[in-house]
Design brief:
alpha+beta; Muramoyl-pentapeptide Carboxypeptidase, domain 2
């Protein structure tokens, strides 16, 4: 994985926009810590935009009707408060929908989760699941916390 550097050769560092932070702050504390640590890590392969945290009934049903979600309210992990799901996209000259940007970011986020889990900071009673690992309806931005036994 390449790590971008500035013109001065320093490792790139990014910070969430206020809009991304507002969305992230509607999520479970483990997702907040995960995404904060992932972006702060100098090894992060790209900037990250938080597209969605908590999703209300109207928004969920609009996404279902448009085909952007397979689930109606209240069946999405986004429909709990705090949200048990976050949609996070690589930001590479803008929000990227290109899988070539999702795979390195996903590997990085999974590594950060593992590190935080080993330190006992996340994961009590649940595990992390990435929508890009699903066999149908692949969802690159989607991350969710599911019951550890589920």
């Amino acid at each position: 994985m390449d790590i971008e550097t500035s013109e001065q050769g320093d490792l790139m560092s990014w910070a969430y926009s206020s809009r991304s932070l507002d969305r992230l702050n509607s999520c479970h504390p483990d997702l907040i810590l995960l995404m904060t640590e992932a972006l702060a890590d100098p090894a992060c392969p790209s900037d990250i935009s938080i597209l969605e945290g908590y999703r209300d009934e109207q928004k969920q049903n609009e996404l279902k009707a448009s085909g952007a979600s397979q689930l109606s309210w209240p069946n999405s992990y986004h429909n709990r408060f705090p949200s048990m799901a976050v949609d996070a996209a690589p930001y590479v000259g803008g929000i990227s929908w290109d899988w070539q940007h999702y795979y390195p970011l996903a590997a990085h986020i999974k590594a950060v989760w593992s590190r935080l889990q080993q330190a006992g900071k996340v994961g009590a009673g649940h595990r992390l699941e990435w929508g890009g690992d699903w066999t149908s309806f692949k969802d690159g931005p989607h991350w969710q916390l599911v019951a550890a036994d589920g």
